[in-house]
Amino acid sequence: MTEKQRNTIVIDPVTRIEGHSKITLHLNAQGRVEDARFHVTQFRGFEKFCEGRPFYEMPSLMARICGICPVSHLIASAKACDALLAVRIPPTADKLRRIFGLAQVIQSHALSFFYLSSPDLLLGMDADPAKANLFGVIEKNRELALDGVHLRQFGQQIIERLGGKRIHPAWIVPGGVSEPLTEENRDAILEALPQAQQISERTIDWFKANLEPFREEITTFGNFPTLFMGIVKPGGGLTFYDGNVRITDASGDVLVDNLDPANYNDYIGEKVEPWSFLKSTYYKPKGFPDGIYRVGPLARMNVADRCGTPRADQELAEFHELQRTAVLSSFHYHHARLIEILYCVERMRSLLEDPDILSKHVRAFAKPNALEGVGACEAPRGTLFHHYKIDEQGLIRWANLVIATGHNSVAMNRSILQVGKHFVRGERLTPGMLNRVEAVIRAYDPCLSCSTHAVGQMPLHIQLLSWDGKVLDEVSR
Amino acid sequence: MKSHADPYEDCPTSVVAGQGPRLKTLVLGYGNPLRSDDGLGWHAAEQLAATLPDLDAEIRTTAQLTPELALPISEAGLVIFIDATREGEPGELTCNPLTPQLVPVRSSHHLSPEAVLALSKYMYGVSPPAFLVSLCGACFGLGEELSPAVAGQLPRLVSLVAQLAESGSASAASLS
Fold first, then answer.
1. Residue A302 forms part of a structural domain
2. Domain count of the fold of chain A
3. Is the minimum CB–CB distance between B108 and chain A shorter than 8 Å?
4. Which of residues 158-217 of A touch B (CB under 8 A)?
5. How far is CA A243 from CA A72, A231, A233, A308, B43, in A?
6. Chain A residues with CB inside 8 Å of B5's CB?
7. Which residues constitute the domain of residue A311?
8. Is B3 within 8 Å of chain A by CB?
9. Of B44, B8, B16, B41, the residue nearest B129 (C-alpha)
10. Tens of pLDDT, residues A381-430
11. ipTM score here?
12. DSSP B100
């Protein structure tokens, strides 16, 4: 079939995700979807405009990439700066950074699950779009909405307690953190943990008990073999802060292990597509597009042998029983996200109960001792790399950021294609079709501000084009 | 626009002054402080805190209104939102009472004041009296400074907010 014999559906903007994007569905002469593209339509260019800035400004600058997960950028950036200083940060600073990161994962995952995706899960994929929001959730299940708001607030309040503010805190600095933890703040966080754990556990129970209506979505929402990538602790435990990269295959076997994040360029390739500002990455040894892999909660649950906390480990064991191979359906990102929230709450307790957590030694001071540094961590949406080169004066000469949403770019495109092929029929978009195309993207929880280092929210635009280029249907919201 | 049936019709929707201890006033300045006049709420909050340290109000700033604000709103006796507007003549000061509204929500972190009030009402059963105090902006481009038109009217806005806050929920209605 020639290009002209295709019809196209465009969804622009995509709603209930973080950032600006549109989706194009190409139809063949029979009205069936034959190709799909997820276009990220915003651009900011942080990698370029930080050139010439002093390296120690980078954490604060990079945190501005995103209002949802600034802490991950702070952590990855500060770790890259630690590498430039060639220092080992004090042990207490290491633990405090971990707590900060866990708090962010909780609030970010709570936002994704409760605010963005729970309307689909509670009201159904065919629900009235006017009700598919937090108000609709309140109407149907007020406790679920309250839990979501409480859990997000819990995470944000920890960030505010440690960092001084909820958004763009500057507490994490090259060499450690700027202030030690106070006893008052430690006790306040510890006091709030039991309720957060109760919410985490009952939400997982609620989710698992309500999966039956989504059998078709589980089967078709990005359910295909790929590789999975994530940072794990030595021994294969879940971590968000430090470790080496592990890649597993679709059968669940470890393909490669103990890859140094500093050498990411050896095994991760980056590709630019003309139709999107989002970079696509792939596992270099397998090439593009065969080197497709996924990151984020689903990938972390697939690559990790254990969480390392009691309740999360029970849930992980159950999760691994979903499939004999790796858990392949991207619908299960939601499930993985909830297990991670539980892990974060449990892990935070053990860190806060550490006898050294109130130590005043929280920062190492040095001048630059290296001209190149890489920092990596697991952001809520997946593996995050910051890579800087400086000159002798400590000014940034080059920067590269590899962002979680970019890692998932190829998989998201393939997921839209799978959902489109299964659910989209004819030349008109029904709300149910439209919502499923969006919902598969929501499962990945892409952050487009991060992935293009761009500004703004993410509306959605879907277009349906005929074989001769005529717009048959178009939805913008 | 009301898109839902009201599921909590019987919930209390305001706290009446004179019944029980007076609840605190919550001042919420919001906007983007890196977008010139859009940072009005932040500038106003700073001036309120600096010039009226004894003001009996909790002053908060935020880039956008989010669902988590429903809880502190539900605990307040009066809520005063401060934001810049594009409607009117640059520097024009307006003060309008707000009521909870179930507006369609498409984003997780971009709610209207009416929507946050509605969340307070439907999640916590309380929606205190609320006002939106605005100045019409002249410039929303990149920058941390207010335009002369807005900066010149900022003292009037601060004075009005202080007056509202000090009068509390009972007298607030008469000021509208």
1. yes
2. 1
3. yes
4. 166-167
5. 15, 6, 5, 14, 43
6. 139
7. 225-327
8. yes
9. B16
10. 999 999 999 999 999 999 998 888 889 989 999 999 999 999 987 777 78
11. 0.79
12. -
